Automatic annotation (TrEMBL):
<dbReference type="Pfam" id="PF02597">
    <property type="entry name" value="ThiS"/>
</dbReference>
<protein>
    <submittedName>
        <fullName>MoaD/ThiS family protein</fullName>
    </submittedName>
</protein>
<dbReference type="InterPro" id="IPR003749">
    <property type="entry name" value="ThiS/MoaD-like"/>
</dbReference>
<dbReference type="InterPro" id="IPR012675">
    <property type="entry name" value="Beta-grasp_dom_sf"/>
</dbReference>
<dbReference type="InterPro" id="IPR016155">
    <property type="entry name" value="Mopterin_synth/thiamin_S_b"/>
</dbReference>
């Protein structure tokens, strides 16, 4: 089985794809490795959130995704 990484907004443009399947389980270090250096640099920003199983993580570095989970990378939201 695998973990699905979902790239949203500008992170999708940087990654060049909307979804990526990777082997699970997946922790923070594994996520950073799986997304590549450009997206990983964005993940280091406080304004970028990570959700797992539909819930935004209070501490994204505590990510523990299991086989079958979806991890969404959430860029900052702007609006007027």
């Amino acid at each position: 089985m695998s973990v699905t990484i979902l790239f949203l907004g500008p992170l999708r443009d940087i990654a060049g794809e909307q979804l990526r399947e990777v082997d699970g389980p997946l922790d923070w270090a594994g996520l950073r490795d799986a997304v590549g250096p450009e997206v990983a640099a964005q993940l280091d920003e406080d304004r970028v959130n990570v959700a797992c199983k539909g819930r935004v993580l209070a501490d994204k570095c505590a990510l523990q995704a299991e086989d079958g989970d979806e991890v969404a990378l959430l860029p900052p939201v702007s609006g007027g």
